[in-house]
């Protein structure tokens, strides 16, 4: 990530003697060193690689009418933003835009206030989460972002120069489950798109929105996993409509995979129009993937956040259930793997040697 790191600070959440979540804030922002830049890059990379993220926006609500005589400028303006987090973030961005001398202090104050807000949310929802809460505001490709992630640590052992063993703790980025990223530029320029917040949806079926999205006052608008599933299904339908042979279809799927990887690594949304330029088109009818997708019963959106899990769907057929687990490369369909929908039968030719050996041994014992 060739990004310009503006501010970086970390606070800690612990469980105190009363078994309550307590915040231990850092006194100031960290100096942006090469080590901090590397850590920010690693956090961003881990976030991009997480499958099944959600996309949304700050919660809006109609103004209250409990006190009709109250002179409230926000109420007169119509819709108000009910996210206190959003208001504090907006105030920080205003100070940053003014380019005052205390911008770093403003970011630190915002991060401390947000940390305290998270502690209150945890208490209100009865959730216990501890670790290091990281706030990073950075610029990438002329776009301003804010990343907030709650990370835990993991022990590892190092061998020193004197060949002694030393136990150390490091941030466990691989198990990052609580993180949210704000596209501050889109929020400022195109808030009506309502896609400026992206977040990890959680582990083992639990949604982060249970408390983490309540903490920032956001709601999910787009199910990225479902969007990507629809995209892959549309790609399959389009390639089938082009009457391509299996090898050509495989080559074009590889091109789609390459495009997915580029966008995932860059942390960018993929464009259906850009993808159409990488897929075959019919010049006589002016039909291409973009036009084909708009003719579907549910048209694809023009911009879609890529889900890393979709890469597997492009490369393989897989499924499990009832004690059976099957996975094979798509290019084998019709070559070594044959499916008969009428009899719900899958026929495999040329079994893997290790599986064949197990089956032969079992057969000899029966």
Order of helices and strands: EEHEEHEHHEEEEEHEHEHHEHHEHEEEEH
What does the main sheet amount to?
8 strands, antiparallel
Are there runs of 5+ residues with pLDDT below 50, and where? 62-81
Overall strand count:
18
Structure description:
InterPro entries: Nucleoid_associated_NdpA (IPR007358). It holds the Pfam family NA37. It is found in: Cytoplasm, Nucleoid. Keywords: Cytoplasm. One of its GO terms (molecular function) is single-stranded RNA binding. By secondary structure, the protein is α+β, with helices and mostly antiparallel strands. It folds into 3 domains: 220 residues, no CATH class; 91 residues, no CATH class; 38 residues, no CATH class. Helices cover 37% and strands 27% of the residues. It is built from 12 helices and 18 strands. The strands form 6 sheets. An 8-stranded antiparallel beta sheet has the order 2-1-6-7-10-11-3-12, sandwiched between helices. Helix 3 runs antiparallel to helix 4. It is globular, with a radius of gyration of 25 Å. The termini are far apart. About 5% of the residues have low confidence.
């Amino acid at each position: 990530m060739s990004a310009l790191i503006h501010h970086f600070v970390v606070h800690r959440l612990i469980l105190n003697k009363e078994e309550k979540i307590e915040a231990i804030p850092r006194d100031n922002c960290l100096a942006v060193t090469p080590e901090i830049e590397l850590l920010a890059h690693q956090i961003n990379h881990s976030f991009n690689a997480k499958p099944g993220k959600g996309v949304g926006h700050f919660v809006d609500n109609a103004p209250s009418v409990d006190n009709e005589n109250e002179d409230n400028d926000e109420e007169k303006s119509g819709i108000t933003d009910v996210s206190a987090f959003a208001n504090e973030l907006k105030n920080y961005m205003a100070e940053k835009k003014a380019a005052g001398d205390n911008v770093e202090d403003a970011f630190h104050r915002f991060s401390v206030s947000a940390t305290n807000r998270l502690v209150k949310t945890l208490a209100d929802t009865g959730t216990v989460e501890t670790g290091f809460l990281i706030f990073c505001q950075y610029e990438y490709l002329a776009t301003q972002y804010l990343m907030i992630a709650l990370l835990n640590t993991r022990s590892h052992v190092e061998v020193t120069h004197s060949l002694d063993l030393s136990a150390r703790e490091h941030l466990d980025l691989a198990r990052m489950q609580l993180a949210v990223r704000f596209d501050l530029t889109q929020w400022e320029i195109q808030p009506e798109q309502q896609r400026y917040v992206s977040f990890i949806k959680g582990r083992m079926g639990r949604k982060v929105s249970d408390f983490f999205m309540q903490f920032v006052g956001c709601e999910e608008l787009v199910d990225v996993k479902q969007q990507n599933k629809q995209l892959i299904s549309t790609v399959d339908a389009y390639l089938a409509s082009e009457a391509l042979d299996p090898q050509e279809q495989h080559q074009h799927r590889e091109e789609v995979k390459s495009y997915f990887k580029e966008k995932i690594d860059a942390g960018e949304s993929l464009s259906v129009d850009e993808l159409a330029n990488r897929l075959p088109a019919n010049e006589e009818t002016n039909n291409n993937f973009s036009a084909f997708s708009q003719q579907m019963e549910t048209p694809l959106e023009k911009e879609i956040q890529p889900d890393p899990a979709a890469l597997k769907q492009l490369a393989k057929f897989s499924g499990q259930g009832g004690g059976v687990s099957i996975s094979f490369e798509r290019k084998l369909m019709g070559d070594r793997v044959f499916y008969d929908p009428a009899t719900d039968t899958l026929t495999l030719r040329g079994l893997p040697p290790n599986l064949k050996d197990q089956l032969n041994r079992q057969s000899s014992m029966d």
